[in-house]
Design goal:
single chain, 325 residues, alpha/beta, 6-stranded parallel sheet, two-stranded antiparallel sheet, 27% helix, binds iron/sulfur cluster
Length: 325
């Protein structure tokens, strides 16, 4: 008797402006990779397979069943590939914080192209560049013209460039949640409506956190984690340490707090929160132990880098999008 051969889906994994961690997280599925291979042909994955852009261009439209696109859109190459993969893919998943909300590369929106180039090529401590040479998009050599992608002024989320079917959040997403979502797609199980966040929960981290919370949060100064002696049991916010739990979607297993570090917010906001920074500011406002405006200002000044902290993973996808310079 011949064994029934199940049709496989075509799977692609691609990175835009990314650190590589999301691609590595796909490898982190360990032996579950056999489950992936059982159900999917990997048709494009630059970190693991030598498949060129022209090979993707040659694929018929809709040829790829699922693309996990990680990384933000920072340059013209990222944008070209986002558009190309959108055309070639039935289900496009924004995989990880950078594709979802802009992520760590999105912090560059606190500066701009000129500021970043000056810092990188002129001002940085290890740079000697008296002629102020900057990378050029086109450079002629004997063999022809070399071309670099255009470096944009703004970092964008994937859905600011193309339509996205699903968002799988996290920096990087939890491996178990990836497998869960992958199998749901493969088996065409109960997938939520297009545009949904998958592989995460609806409510915030605090709903899943086991640390003790009280109604008597009274903060007179905010501290960095190393400035407190964490008792391992009390809510970080109540100990005066910024924890993004109230403004962050659950689903990672509260993994940072379980490891005695505050949540940094990589899963993005829960479904009932439009902007994580605003939610965090409102959570903090209820905790400050003063009614005096000058004193309140001084207490707020003890928060180190509030914008960078509240929008660490989400600036391009937030209401602010960028700093106005
Ligand atoms: S979400 Fe995190 S792990 Fe993934 S590419 Fe961005 S920075 Fe790296
Ligand atoms: S703020 Fe952080 S430590 Fe406190 S309950 Fe929420 S997730 Fe837990
Ligand atoms: S606890 Fe927060 S920062 Fe840590 S993985 Fe979960 S969502 Fe991300």
């Amino acid at each position: 008797m011949t064994k029934e051969v199940k049709p496989k889906i075509n799977l692609a994994v691609y990175w835009g402006a990314a650190c590589g961690g999301c691609c590595v997280s796909v490898l982190d599925v360990h032996e579950a990779l056999f489950t992936v291979i059982e159900h999917a042909n990997l048709v494009f994955w630059p970190i693991a397979l030598d498949i060129k852009y022209k090979d993707v261009e040659a694929m018929p439209d809709g040829f790829i069943d699922v693309t996990l696109f990680n990384g933000a859109v920072r340059n013209s190459e990222n944008e070209h590939m986002a558009k190309l993969l959108r055309k070639k893919t039935k289900i496009l998943v924004a995989y990880g914080s950078c594709a979802h909300m802009g992520g760590i590369p999105g912090l560059a929106n606190f500066s701009n192209r000129e500021g970043i180039f000056n810092r990188a090529y002129i001002e940085s401590e290890s740079t000697v560049n008296p002629d102020r040479v900057f990378p050029q998009q086109h450079h002629r050599v004997e063999e022809g013209v070399l071309e670099l992608p255009e470096f944009y002024n703004d970092v964008k989320t994937l859905n600011q460039v193309v339509n996205v079917d699903y968002y799988l959040p996290g920096c990087p997403p939890q491996t178990e949640r990836l497998i869960e979502v992958f199998l749901a797609i493969v088996t065409k199980a109960d997938l939520p409506p297009v545009g949904s966040v998958v592989g995460a929960n609806e409510k915030c981290q605090c709903d899943e956190c086991k640390r003790k919370k009280s109604d008597k949060k009274k903060i007179r100064a905010f501290k960095r984690p190393w400035q407190i002696k964490d008792d391992g049991e009390t809510c970080f916010l109540e100990q005066g340490v910024i924890c993004m739990g109230p403004a962050t979607r659950g689903g990672c297993g509260v993994r940072c707090v379980e490891g005695n570090a505050p949540c940094r917010g990589c899963y993005g906001p829960p479904s009932d929160v439009t902007d994580p920074g605003l939610k965090m500011m409102s959570a903090i406002a209820t905790m400050i132990d003063s009614n005096d405006s000058d004193e309140i200002e001084k207490i707020i000044e003890t928060i180190d880098d509030p914008a960078g902290t509240f929008y660490r993973f989400s600036l391009p996808g937030s209401i602010l999008r960028r700093k106005v310079l």
